[in-house]
């Protein structure tokens, strides 16, 4: 590895090598028994110009070895650590310019930081200064790793070197911790914005990961300086304060304290800009232990942009807005919304935070839902130009937001989430006017249209719930009629994304509303059914797949409902089933075929395939189609269909699901058992299952084995499993014995005789019953669930695999990794 210089393989090989755990043996014996490790490090240090990747690897390897105190002392005796991590190492060489070397140095130091000798080694050698410098590294990975390392070192120093708990009056920090804290304090008091930001990031990470009481002692020493950043205009660090305060708010050390900390949070909400305060506000609103007055203030900050939108869209005093008073100067929000560069970003951030809050099952704060909905509708009307603002501010915002896809998508996401909250009933008519305007507009982009469909489907469900309770039938009927008129046009769109979204929308509606009379009547009186069926032949495979799903769900209304309407021969059940079976057998793309098998399974689950005889023929045809499909997900879907069919058949014939359950009589049980076996054999279920056991795609074989194990539990109580050695006398016994040997070789799919010689008759109930009782399915199950490295899993076998790929790395890089 040291001598290899191939450019593409270094990081791959070294990463794999370090992936093994060298800390399993904490003694020095690992290094003593494997001198090649220290020899390797020594030889790399002796190279005049080692490659950066080899040197980085060596640094990380040495750090891992030094994680044990015993091994650390051994490496120290040979002066290897000081040559790697001290001033005489890579720190002062040209190789330090390479980010991979700096990264290897930081990772190596982090790995060894598990004991006090390592801490003292680094502190005495000036390593603290190096790590603080690396916080500002141009490589974000190195800078982040350096910050994490400082947090780890500070925590290790305090928790391993302290002899008594720290208090606010007695701050006798350990030596290493004192060095780090002094550097933090100096950075916070410096005039360098970058140094201040680095220290604030470090504190954020510390308070977020460490919940020990000594963090409060540290905070009290720097709190005044942090507080001054809120008001000092010369220091541009305010944007970092929100993350710092939020990480502290989640810590029990600070959230349970009275006064000081929450007063600082309140001050931050007042002084930070709306963009800076937004993340802090939403984080506080998610916090259950937040004081009520702080929570109200956070909600006010979050809603200020929405309030400004409402006021800008209405005449003076016509609408009061969302808020009675503001936390910060309303002119600040108005200024941001009047600027093209900040308006969209502020609104998108605010909307994202609102969606985050609405996604919570239990909101710790009450939102003004009606006013919020009104504000969302106003934003959407600004974006499509359907609203004429009455104020100069409104006109400015409207010009900025026109056709803003980002704001439209964000607003529609919040609108959809709002459908699950109560209190918006009075605005339903106006809401659907806005949604329909978006659905009808040719200027609505495909992505915005998809979001509009999603929001519309959720609000239609809400509308149905309300109409059932307050008899608003006429309003519901009119809205549904308008929706289906728009849907008809969209299903004919030249844009395939629009056709696809339209079909997904239709499917979503059917899933939620198929039992509602008004919905069924509006749907069946439209042209949607015919247009949907036409899209089964769409040139785009995604659209065909969505059409299959939509047609499958439409069948629950047109064919499978208790009182299905008679609407012409072209929509009859047989033709639809035949069309879907044709897609399953002939469509060149996998997505439509997967959709078909999924729909067939859904029909079967819900008992829509007719009597048992009809279901048997249906399943048999599907099995014979999918068993040769090249798409493994289609074959897996076929197995799911078989599993449902077997379960339903056994339930219908009265066989007990549990092998220990009592039956009415042995005769009745035997009759039902024979009948179900005959059905499975005629439907070619066993043929498909046993062939799938040797499928080249492991998930297919695993599922088939699970189904066979389930069938055996139904047909054989544990105590009655056959002895395979005594079953080979009959022809069926010989064929089953051949089947078991063939399955063990994993070659059934390649040589699959079903007649003559030792071939197995998979349609013979006696043979299949014998096969279920004698074949060791548990052994097959274990074999199928073995990982690819089950033969040998060790560092040595991994290195052999690595070395085997040398010279052919371009071809095998992905497989090796």
From TrEMBL:
InterPro entries cross-referenced by the UniProt entry: ARM-like, ARM-type_fold, BRAT1
GO cellular component: cytoplasm; nucleus
The organism's taxonomic lineage, starting at the top: Eukaryota, Metazoa, Chordata, Craniata, Vertebrata
Compartments, record wording: Cytoplasm
Keyword field contains Cell wall biogenesis/degradation: no
Protein's UniProt name: BRCA1 associated ATM activator 1
Main localization (coarse): cytoplasm
Keyword field: Cytoplasm
Species this chain originates from: Bubo bubo (Eurasian eagle-owl)
GO biological process, one term: DNA damage response
Family of this protein: Belongs to the BRAT1 family.
